[in-house]
């Protein structure tokens, strides 16, 4: 049979190792892989013709499920189209298994079509790249393939999770004859057991001593998936121990009256006296990157006076964005914080000690600044004309309880962060903040919606939307997807940044004005289309926007870029006025 058994076994092996979803971009060289997964009874396949979009759809699926998703594409330049999603997955620590079909290597540089150097093509942006042999008959080859696929799937999951590449050279013929059936043989599974990091007793006691020696402690949460258990322990630490917890919307730190979520506002233009008073003695960070420049700049210019711990499972790399790291704790944040709180709580019980008044006073300083920022934001929205920001606030006010929100990069994620979300809404927030590009935000949301029955809403700007509209060129577009498009007909963020906004080339070379609307895109994708360009129209459109339907829905909100700019400047003026 033309489809060789070791290729068929790849499908069986990834299924036995827990992969259930495969995203396929059609091609001829990849036909043996495609046929093997398509005929496997346990694998769920989805076809996305555009490889760049396919990579991001798989990213969104893996981000939503927490499990590796496999991607199959044909040889040649098709492989390079996966690169943006691969880079995002690598830095966002999302598991992907990339299966790229290839020509046998002896045909390199022989003027053969769709042939290029594919082994190691993703460079340092995958955890590892495997290159399988082109000949499958020898027992050593079969053993190597089985071992490599086992290792690749295991590696994609091991912390930090990420993409792994398997390059698969294939010879003709590619297609089984009519009536040929594939046999999924038993395969050998090689398991890599997970371990739970536990600090030695003396090291743990040293950390507890450092905690006890400082009164002004602060926990800053970077980008993280929504985790109710983690939020619960952070709430207890802040409420009972007087520790301010600082975070942003991509870190899933909701507004609950306790956490500090408006740092981008109150750190902008604050006087040196306030900034110095907010400086901790012990800074504890967890999660990935932080969104706003104001928060990152603050901790770089006002580092912790004593110690800075970072809590995360990856001990292989020192991540020090605030240039103040003193201790890397190689543990998952949840068990570390649970043990920390339990030990401190027991210590208080045994010794009868109350937490120092200075700790609670320090937390109150951060909370006061947060409350002042909330008033500035409320005033800015109350007296604003119709803008992207007011439209974002209207959307945030109507998101369904327990739904999923994907935020596209550029201004949408920043507007949403300014608005915030009440914690009791239990909305899980996601964003492509690994590399922070606009190139696959819509496709990522499509992938997420394919993996859940919950409503998935993506808030996206016009440049990101039209750049990635092949995400909607998809035969299985999920009906639980809701797209909210902020269309100001330009790259709006460049009007908000001081550098490009002052240049005479702004209109032509930075904003890239465009006259497009999404009406025909929605029609082509056969999804419901709504439009609003004023507050009343937006309120009416949102009334039934999240109700169940047979198709996805797209709400296009048109605003004036110059009004957006004027209102944002007024917000900045309110900040300066205090």
UniProtKB/TrEMBL annotation:
Binds 1 thiamine pyrophosphate per subunit. One of its GO terms (biological process) is menaquinone biosynthetic process. The keyword Manganese applies. Pathway: Quinol/quinone metabolism; 1,4-dihydroxy-2-naphthoate biosynthesis; 1,4-dihydroxy-2-naphthoate from chorismate: step 2/7; Quinol/quinone metabolism; menaquinone biosynthesis. It comes from the Bacteria. Keywords: Magnesium, Manganese, Menaquinone biosynthesis, Metal-binding, Thiamine pyrophosphate, Transferase. Residues 441-546 form the Thiamine pyrophosphate enzyme TPP-binding domain. InterPro entries: MenaQ_synth_MenD, THDP-binding, Thiamin_PyroP_enz_TPP-bd_dom, TPP_enzyme_TPP-bd. Its cofactor is Mg(2+); Mn(2+); thiamine diphosphate. It is an enzyme of class 2 (transferase). Its EC number is 2.2.1.9. It catalyses: isochorismate + 2-oxoglutarate + H(+) = 5-enolpyruvoyl-6-hydroxy-2-succinyl-cyclohex-3-ene-1-carboxylate + CO2. Residues 10-114 form the Thiamine pyrophosphate enzyme N-terminal TPP-binding domain. GO terms for molecular function: 2-succinyl-5-enolpyruvyl-6-hydroxy-3-cyclohexene-1-carboxylic-acid synthase activity; magnesium ion binding; manganese ion binding; thiamine pyrophosphate binding. Catalyzes the thiamine diphosphate-dependent decarboxylation of 2-oxoglutarate and the subsequent addition of the resulting succinic semialdehyde-thiamine pyrophosphate anion to isochorismate to yield 2-succinyl-5-enolpyruvyl-6-hydroxy-3-cyclohexene-1-carboxylate (SEPHCHC). Belongs to the TPP enzyme family. MenD subfamily. Homodimer. HAMAP family: MenD (MF_01659). This is 2-succinyl-5-enolpyruvyl-6-hydroxy-3-cyclohexene-1-carboxylate synthase. It comes from Rudanella paleaurantiibacter. The lineage of its organism: Bacteria, Pseudomonadati, Bacteroidota, Cytophagia, Cytophagales.
